[in-house]
From TrEMBL:
Designated name of the protein: Glutathione-dependent disulfide-bond oxidoreductase
Organism: Vagococcus teuberi
PROSITE patterns: GST_CTER, GST_NTER
Ranges where the GST C-terminal domain occurs: 132-261
Ranges where the GST N-terminal domain occurs: 42-129
InterPro entries: Glutathione-S-Trfase_C-like, Glutathione-S-Trfase_C_sf, Glutathione_S-Trfase, Glutathione_S-Trfase_N, Thioredoxin-like_sf
Pfam families cross-referenced by the UniProt entry: GST_C_2, GST_N
Length: 261
């Protein structure tokens, strides 16, 4: 039991002027000049599950021989608060990675939110997102499923299982239940089709593998694969390992981030 009582009005008790860290306010905290390279796409990101979605897709496009998919990749150290600098906030007012600038367009186009970036690139190059309205809708169904479901895995299960300063039964049970439900859903879907949205590899596979594939591989939270009994989801496990062997996925996961300073 806890003696915590809800206040009438919540106040932020840890108020500080640190460059990084969470605050209940948005906006830039300091002046910043981000580097800009010569490639068509400037990607400001980090190798998190959301971040690798973009590098994987760009590398998959390059594997198809699309030279216009070249990109410069810069590291936004979210632990140090780089995402709150003025230049980054001008690209993404929400101060979250990944963010991207398409400087092959005039004027430049800023794109933020990983799902939005995937759709933008897929539509720009006509790859990994079907043109047929039925097939396209199925891909988008699963892309938006991931965008809506991922926070339960990351901010919910991952936070309380791995990051929280103390282990609390109620939130761990709550988010483990939902995470396993999602894993079971994916396993049942993949029992009926080769890829997430059907018979063709798409941005839905990229988005979902970046979170759930890495969870299956045990690469997100130490000890979680055993805790979640991952091996019981055999169709999901097979899909995970099959996607992991794609050259574009390997290169996207191994992409090198340049320092912004």
């Amino acid at each position: 039991m806890t003696d915590y009582k809800l206040p009438d009005v919540w106040t932020w008790e840890d108020e500080n002027n640190n460059k990084g860290g969470n605050r209940p306010t948005a906006g830039s905290r300091f002046e910043q000049k981000l580097p800009v390279g010569s490639a068509p796409f400037q990607v400001y990101s980090l190798g998190t599950p959301n971040g690798v979605k973009v590098t994987i897709l760009l590398e998959e496009l390059k594997e198809l021989g699309i030279k216009d998919a070249e990109y410069d990749l810069y590291k936004i150290n979210i632990g140090e608060g780089d995402q709150f600098g003025s230049d980054f906030v001008s690209i993404n007012p929400n101060s979250k990675i990944p963010a991207m600038v398409d400087q092959s367009q005039t004027p430049n186009i800023d794109v933020f939110e990983s799902g939005s970036i995937l759709v933008y690139l897929a539509e720009k190059f006509g790859e990994f997102l079907p043109k047929d309205i039925q097939d396209k809708t199925e891909v988008l169904n699963w892309l938006f499923w991931q965008v809506g479901s991922g926070p339960f895995v990351g901010g919910g299960f991952g936070h309380f299982f791995h990051y929280a300063p103390e282990k609390l039964k109620y939130p761990i049970d709550r988010y483990t239940m939902e995470t396993k439900r999602q894993l079971d859903l994916l396993d049942k879907v993949l029992a009926t089709r080769e890829f997430i949205a059907g018979d063709t590899y798409s941005i839905a596979d990229i988005a979902i593998w970046s979170w759930y594939g890495q969870l299956v591989l045990g690469d997100l939270y130490e000890g979680s694969a055993e805790f979640l009994d991952i091996q019981s989801y055999k169709h999901l496990v097979e899909w995970t390992h099959r996607i992991a062997q794609r050259p574009g996925v390997k290169k996207g996961m191994a992409a090198e981030y340049k320092a912004i300073d």
